[in-house]
Each structure stands twice: as C-alpha cells, then as structure tokens.
Amino acid sequence: MSESVYQLNTLVKRYDSRTVVALDSLTVYRGEILALVGPSGAGKSTLLRLLGLLEAPTSGSLQFFGREVANGSAQADLELRRRLTMVFQRPLLLNRSVQANIAYGLRLRGDKSNGKVASAMEQLGLSHLARQNTRVLSGGEAQRVSLARAMVLDTEVLLLDEPTANLDPYNVNLIETAVRKMNAEQSKTIVLVTHNIFQAHRLAQRTALLLDGRLVEVSPSDVFFTAPADPRTAAFVRGDMVY
Q1: CA–CA gap between residue 196 and residue 202 (Å, rounded)
Q2: Residue 141 confidence (pLDDT) above 90
C-alpha cells in the first residue's frame, strides 16, 4: 500500500458514559476508496466525523497526513482542514441557485473559476438546473449539488456519508460514476459510509465492518465479500444480520 492519509490508534469516542467508537487501529491509504459498512448505530457516521475533524476523540491518536489532530477541529489549523471535504447524508444547501451553491466554497477561498463549476454541473447532470433555486430540487438533485460543491474544491480527501441513501437508480449511477472518476483520475482518497453492501463492493478497494463501534474486519473488497475472515462479517454479507 501507499503512504497513509489517516492513522488511528487506540481511538475512543464517548458521549457521556456511552462509548460510540473504540478502534484498536485503522489506516486509510492515499488514493484508495475505503467503504465503512455495518448496522445502524455501529458508529460509522461518528467515525466519519472524527476523520472530518468535526469531532474530537475522547482518547487515543488520530493522525492526518502524519500530523496529530487529537483535539479535533477546534484546534486543527485551517490549512490541514482544507485538505478534506465532507458530504453529509442530508444536503445542507443555501437558499440560492444551484450554480451559486456549487461556487460558494470556491468563492470563500478566493477562487472565481466558473470553469470548475460548469464542469462539475455537466458531470453530474446539473447544467440545465444552474439557475434553479435549491428549494425546489428533488432529493437526488440536491445530493448531486452537494457532491458537486465538494468536487470543485478539489481536496485530497473526500468523506461521503450515505451519498445515495433513498435515491433512484439514475441518481445513484451519476454519483457513483463521479466518485469512481475522481478516484481513478485524481487519485483522490475517499472514505464512504454506506448501508448498501453492493455499492461498497462496486466502489471500494477495501471494505471495513464496524459493530458496536469496533472494527471487526477490514480487507480488500473482493476478499471481504467472498471469503471474509470473521464469521460476523460472513453473517453481515449474507444478510443474516439485521441492519
């Protein structure tokens, strides 16, 4: 494997007395797509927020590009945080046009490149909606706008929390194609939380299973889905585990 982007060791996240994440170790490598799967409440989204520097670990070590960020986003410097982008399950869009939403992050960074915005809209089938207010978009259209807004920032790391949940096949295909292209052409490191094990198999080079906040197994996706080492992984892949 190539160099690591994230290195987590004895990482724990608690809310009051409840332990939500407790990982012995996890490495995310540069240029890979890593899928995080598991039942609801397994800690997947919390782990993603830790990787996004939006939550601070309760204890343990979280290194991002070799730098310790144990204090989370409150202390992480702006330069480090600008190396990643996160797309949430529920799009958070401004009451503006599609084009203005996609360009918003670029404007904050002093980049007025309309070419990046136009390219992202074309790739995600949004060009005809450029002047449409986001309040009238469908769920799939809003999710594509959210992804396009992240794409134009061209960060090294992209974190996706259920990017196609409850979407129709057309929107799923557009989003998956864009994710695959970013990884293949830009070597972008992508961590994907999904309940869709077929999506994980289609997109990810490696897949990790979380149960009760603990990492059960992480392995190349072909191995994970066809010859898992842990019986709990096998049960999850077969659908014997309710989630």
Answers
A1: 10
A2: yes
